[in-house]
Amino acid sequence: MTKIRLKQFPLLLLAMASLSLHGQMAGRLDRYPGFESQNIENRRVDIWFPSKVDGPYKVLIMHDGQMLFNADSTWNKQEWGVDECLDSLIQQEMLEPTIIVGIWNIYDDRHRNYFPQKPFESLNPSTQDSLLQLGRGGSEAHLFSDKPDSDDYLKFIFQELMPWLRENYPIREGAENVSMMGSSMGGLISMYAALEYPSELHSVACVSTHWPGVWQNENNPIPDAFLIYLESHQAEASQTRWYYDRGDATLDSLYQPHQDRVNALYESWGFSESNFQSKAFPGAAHRELDWQSRLPDILLFLLGS
Q: What distance in Å separates the CA atoms of residue 213 and residue 249, rounded to the nearest whole number?
């Protein structure tokens, strides 16, 4: 694919759509309602800035951007609260100035965008077809709106969004200043990003990583496909600092056997606590309030020197 020239983007239109949102939020938020892409569907992008500090900034890329800052506008009335947490750590000089790039999902395309594409394509065709026919919890819609296009989603991030960010905001140069975090399917796409673009990321946090890919463990070949893919990318994995975690309630109750296998793999590769952490939280469920409670330690590991 021909590399996109960012000057072709309607940046003035995007800038005019930028909002500064205050109220209960710590820091400042610039909102771009329809960030254009030549790789995936246009979507909303939020850029959050800490209070009382100037750039140049580190960058933390987060998926499911609509769930990060404002519980009043989320589907379950929960949020990560990452603005308050990160702002507090920066004001206490425990972390260096960092901005958050919150990429909103498109509900119908979330599974398609976030499901690692190469592991999906490694499954036999009949399994792929079966997965594409799965329903989405109680509705007639399919879980996958189409075959996974996470390779194009990552192209959007690293070939369109990040170069545009560097042109328009005071951010620090170098991959050592870029991190990524996501939960559930967002954990899967964060893992995939670090292995597909190892020279672009310093660290990733894969929170409550949805290793089953669907909603059950029984007769499910997906976790094996993910592990085989991960096993074949030791060299790429060695370039990144890794954080994983899981609870054991609600959907997180499915994750222990898969996360244990992933942990054993990293241990066999010789990772240490300085570049790999995997934590379990008894009683923690698959929801933003539980992820919010873990944020201080995650951010210190992810963004610390």
A: 17
